[in-house]
Structure formats: structure tokens, C-alpha cells
Amino acid sequence: MANRGLTNAILSVSALGTPPFQTLDPFLFCVYHKDAYPAGNPSMEAPRIGNGADFDPTAPYRMYHGNKIPGFPQHPHRGFETITATMEGIIDHTDSKGNGGRYGDGDLQWMTAGKGVVHGEMFPLVNQEKGNPTRFFQIWLNLPSSHKMVEPSFKMHWSEDINKIVREDGATLTLFVGSYKGALSSDPPPSSWASDRSNDVGVFHVTLPPGSKVRVPPSEAPGANRTLYMIEGSQGVVDGREFSDRIYAVVDAGKELELRNDGGGKTEFLVLQGRPIGEPVVQHGPFVMNTQEEIQQAFRDYQNTRFGGWPWEMDDMVFPVDKGRFAFFDGKESVPGEGGKEEL
């Protein structure tokens, strides 16, 4: 790391390390999944590696908790939301409400766990003639106490409808969540902390080819938190400070943030921001509540009800190999539409 002059926006910086990454309120959890899955067989399976709880960061790919197909078979959540923002690869979603879907390659899925839901996230290897590289972020966004016990739901934001800001120098900012210089993301679920635009919740994916830059304006929410993750590349300049390693930084959300790539190769950043909820957080595994008593109740409720049970024939449910991208929610199926890009 080299410092070219003083910085105004950076409050602290450290090595990124292995996921899950550090986050600030209103976020709870952030993982960057990157797996070089091989070509699949007719059952969309990968050659087995690992030991059934596979998170080895040095491996070319991970099975996670999957047995033959990589992924996360059915598991419960309560009290927060998952935001799954994809760049490459396919994810199959199923849940205890009978909803399902296949998405990826730029789509975003937003699930409100609320009072309790069981879901599965599997990564079927749909390509049999070539590899199945997968890259995506999974981010947990907290729910305020007034919304922790809302009914579960999910929304699919298709890549065709996601604003991708493109600069003349080749820099791009994918507006997964929030607003950027007048451009807006698709609407969050109604019970989300992000549904109130004054909370200025943002999830931005910035890609910088050599010689390009992006400026992220100050947050409009007083007291907002903003964190920065350099996830790809060996050369990045953050508010005038040069980094050659992947970093995690806390930055002043009240100041403009300039991100540059002055060197060779592509550099990528993730930016998370939002006004904090400011309530106690008690987490135990897949449950996030405000008190220890609420956590204990969550475990009792799950043991007694299984949050509605599991209506699918397999714990690691996937859809047929030739099934395209789709979302099935509340008895209705939808597929991607048309969209476009906006210029800065």
C-alpha cells in the first residue's frame, strides 16, 4: 500500500481477509462468492471436493454444504433480509412458502425472512460443454424491531431492469440498491429498511478498467455508514490513496468518494451504505433479533413449526437443466423483461 497525499474520506482501512467481511449497521453480513466450477454432468453436478462444510478459500471452487450440487440446502432464517447480487453463474432458489426461481448473470434476489422462512440456494452446473464460473455477493440487511416479524416474501430484480451506469472511460457502476445521481434501483420489498429512501441504503458494484474512475456522491442520510471493499484487482486508488491489495475501508459517507484505477488490469469495488437502524443486535446462526429471549423463541418456533415446512421433494432442490431464468412467487411465474443502461 502506498499513500499519495492526505485522504479526507477514509476513516479506517485494513486487509480484506476471508469472508464473511466486516459490515456496519444496517448491514449484518457480506460474502463475495467466487468459484470456478467445471462443466457439469447431465445432473448438473460437480466432482466432489471438501468434507461437506467446504469453505476453503484456496480451492478452485467450493461445494459449501452441497453434496453433489454445490450450494446451501434448506436452512432457516428470521429477523433480517438477504440480498443476493449476481455477476456470473446461476442460483436456484426454493423456500418454505412454495416460492422458487432460477436467477443469475446480473440478477438480484431480495428475500425478507421476517418472522421465519426456510430456503435453499443451490448452484446447478447447467453448462455441460464449458465451465460454470460463479460470482455473486450475499449481503444481510437488518430489519428494525417493528418489522422483524413481518410475513416472509421475496422479489426478483432482473438484470435487464437494473441500472448500470456506464462512463465514457469504461467505468461502470451497477446500482443494485439505492440511488446514484438521480438514477434509482428497483423498489425494495415494502418492509425493508431500504424501502424508506431517506435511509439511503445503497449497494453499488463498481468496475474500473485501467485509466478510469467513478465518484460516489455524499450520502443524503445524516449519520449514514459507508463501507468499501476492494474485491478484485491489484491497483486501486481510493480518495487519492493507492492500494495494491484487497482492502476493507470505512469511509465518511458525508463526503464524495473517488475511486480510480491508474494501473493495469481491472479493479472492482463493492460499496455498502445506509443510515443505521441503531437497535440492539443479537444473532445466533441464522436468526437475528433484538434480545436473547427473542433468539430463544426463534429456535422454539422453528422446532415446533419448521416455519411452514418444506414443500419440495429434495433438501437441495434444483430445477431442470433446460429451465431458463424465472421467478415463482405467490402462485405466479415471471420471467425477465427488457431494460437498458443510463449514461453518467
UniProtKB/TrEMBL annotation:
<protein>
    <recommendedName>
        <fullName>Pirin</fullName>
    </recommendedName>
</protein>
<feature type="binding site">
    <location>
        <position position="75"/>
    </location>
    <ligand>
        <name>Fe cation</name>
    </ligand>
</feature>
<comment type="similarity">
    <text>Belongs to the pirin family.</text>
</comment>
<dbReference type="InterPro" id="IPR011051">
    <property type="entry name" value="RmlC_Cupin_sf"/>
</dbReference>
<feature type="binding site">
    <location>
        <position position="121"/>
    </location>
    <ligand>
        <name>Fe cation</name>
    </ligand>
</feature>
<feature type="binding site">
    <location>
        <position position="119"/>
    </location>
    <ligand>
        <name>Fe cation</name>
    </ligand>
</feature>
<dbReference type="Pfam" id="PF02678">
    <property type="entry name" value="Pirin"/>
</dbReference>
<dbReference type="GO" id="GO:0046872">
    <property type="term" value="F:metal ion binding"/>
</dbReference>
<keyword id="KW-0479">Metal-binding</keyword>
<dbReference type="InterPro" id="IPR003829">
    <property type="entry name" value="Pirin_N_dom"/>
</dbReference>
<dbReference type="InterPro" id="IPR014710">
    <property type="entry name" value="RmlC-like_jellyroll"/>
</dbReference>
<feature type="domain" description="Pirin N-terminal">
    <location>
        <begin position="57"/>
        <end position="141"/>
    </location>
</feature>
<dbReference type="InterPro" id="IPR008778">
    <property type="entry name" value="Pirin_C_dom"/>
</dbReference>
<feature type="binding site">
    <location>
        <position position="77"/>
    </location>
    <ligand>
        <name>Fe cation</name>
    </ligand>
</feature>
<dbReference type="Pfam" id="PF05726">
    <property type="entry name" value="Pirin_C"/>
</dbReference>
<feature type="domain" description="Pirin C-terminal">
    <location>
        <begin position="204"/>
        <end position="308"/>
    </location>
</feature>
<dbReference type="InterPro" id="IPR012093">
    <property type="entry name" value="Pirin"/>
</dbReference>
<keyword id="KW-0408">Iron</keyword>
